[in-house]
């Protein structure tokens, strides 16, 4: 293939790139070179990376190329350029967690997901920008990560660079984390697919924690099938890629969480989500209303756990490093130290009860749906310490419950051409059905849409 057409491949699917590798029509080295060229062309406009691993990536690409040339055993991710949020330990490579405190930290261990990507033959191009300690605010040392649909707007957080880079065609996937919506929110803002799997599906070894009870690890990709290919690689539980995409969704019961629709005030978001639900009906799904009592208020309970557990993680720096934190991050830590043990334990009991309520709702339907966010990408990162901004009301309930939840693009607003996400929630360890519905919807709506950048 002529080198001037290589860039067109950067928005192809993982499956298509793998097929071209096997046919020897393009090589991992060519695709990696093109990916790095695009990275350098768009940085710092996007500001999606903290550390670029160009030399390492080229070495991994050459090793992958040798596999295909010699007829070796290649998996779905062999030779595929990917990135990961700078919250995962990488031996010999700095891991900043988006903070000044760890700006020079070089771990002596590899996170599980980093090792899994390497063992799968993926080409790891860099570590992505993120909100400080994944805690709601960007540190000024690193700066806001911008949106490929409008670089004057945020990519969303806290997996900011993961969503921005994938949306812009800089790599085919990234690994992010999600404690209150940090995969799904930027996926919605950037018009890509983001999955928070069932709690514990992806091992957290080597992850710098925010809130151990609510932290989830998952993939961000442009297509649903790419997402499943990555989950298959990083999951500690058996996941059958092919089973997720066999058959249609005719007869599947879809429960609309009306309480999470009613609080959306943006008319374009409401219209796009309503049209998305009707498209599922057109595909044969049985649409009905789902009731989960009090779900619209669960955000405040979940934040009790986030605040308390995050403060415990940061106790060694809290008294001595205040000046090194973003003031908003430090304010969150201060609030966490103010939560009593009684309040924390009462909230854990509420969590058990809420898990049961979501389970009950999912006995009546196969999946649940609602908007991912109440609005498209904002100019600055929305932050939950500003109580009048609806940040994680629709996402954090499923961190609280641990159920798998995915954001898939539902279309763009007419007024500003900004993406809106539809959130799909499934039963524990049933990512396959979530993927099946999301894929059917994405295929029916024309697949991934390229941003203007």
How does this structure look, described?
This protein has 453 residues and is α/β, with parallel strands linked by helices. It has one domain: Amidase signature (AS) enzymes (Alpha-Beta Complex). 37% of the residues lie in helices and 15% in strands. It is built from 15 helices and 13 strands. The protein has helices at residues 14-22, 28-42, 54-69, 112-119, 160-167, 184-190, 224-234, 258-261, 267-282, 298-313, 315-318, 327-337, 341-364, 397-401, 431-444; strands spanning 49-52, 81-85, 123-128, 146-147, 150-154, 173-178, 193-196, 216-221, 253-257, 286-290, 367-371, 405-412, 419-425. Strands 1-3-2-6-8-7-12-13-11-9-10 form an eleven-stranded mixed sheet, with helices on both faces. It has a two-stranded antiparallel ribbon with strand order 4-5. 56% of the residues are buried.
């Amino acid at each position: 293939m002529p080198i001037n057409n290589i860039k067109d491949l950067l928005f192809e699917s993982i499956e298509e790139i793998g097929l071209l590798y096997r046919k020897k029509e393009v090589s991992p080295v060519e695709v990696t070179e093109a990916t790095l060229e695009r990275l350098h062309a768009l940085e710092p406009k996007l500001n999606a990376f903290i550390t670029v691993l160009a030399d390492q990536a080229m070495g991994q690409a050459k090793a992958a190329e040798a596999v295909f040339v010699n007829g070796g055993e290649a998996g779905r991710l062999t030779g595929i350029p990917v990135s990961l949020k700078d919250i995962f330990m990488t031996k010999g490579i700095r891991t900043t967690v988006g903070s000044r405190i760890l700006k020079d930290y070089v771990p002596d261990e590899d996170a599980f997901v980093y090792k899994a990507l390497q063992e799968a033959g993926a080409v790891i191009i860099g570590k992505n920008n993120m909100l400080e300690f994944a805690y709601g605010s960007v540190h000024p040392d690193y700066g806001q990560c911008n949106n490929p649909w409008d670089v004057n707007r945020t990519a969303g957080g806290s997996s900011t660079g993961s969503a921005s880079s994938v949306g812009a065609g800089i790599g085919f996937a990234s690994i992010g984390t999600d404690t209150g919506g940090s995969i799904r929110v930027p996926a919605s803002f950037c018009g890509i697919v983001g999955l928070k799997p069932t709690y514990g599906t992806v091992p957290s070894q080597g992850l710098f924690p925010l809130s151990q009870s609510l932290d989830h690890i998952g993939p961000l990709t442009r297509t649903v099938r790419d997402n499943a290919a990555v989950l298959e690689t990083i999951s500690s539980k058996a996941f059958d890629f092919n089973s997720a995409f066999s058959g249609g969704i005719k007869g599947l019961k879809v429960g609309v969480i009306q309480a999470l629709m009613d609080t959306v005030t943006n008319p374009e978001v409401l219209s796009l989500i309503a049209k998305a639900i009707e498209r599922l009906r057109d595909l044969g799904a049985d649409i009905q209303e789902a009731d989960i009592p009090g779900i619209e208020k669960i955000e405040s309970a979940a934040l009790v756990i986030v605040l308390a557990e995050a403060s415990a993680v940061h106790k060694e720096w809290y008294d001595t490093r205040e000046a090194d934190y973003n003031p908003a991050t430090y304010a969150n830590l201060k609030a966490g130290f103010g939560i009593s043990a009684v309040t924390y334990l009462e909230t854990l009991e509420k969590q058990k009860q809420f898990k049961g309520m979501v389970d009950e709702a999912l006995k009546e339907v196969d999946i649940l749906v609602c908007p991912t966010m109440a609005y498209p990408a904002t100019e600055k990162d929305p932050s939950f310490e500003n109580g009048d901004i609806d940040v994680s009301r629709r996402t954090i309930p499923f961190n609280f419950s641990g159920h798998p939840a995915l954001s898939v693009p539902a279309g763009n607003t007419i007024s500003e051409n900004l993406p809106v996400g539809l959130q799909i929630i499934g039963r524990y360890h049933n990512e396959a059905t979530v993927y099946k519905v999301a894929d059917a919807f994405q295929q029916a709506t024309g697949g991934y849409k390229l941003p203007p950048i």
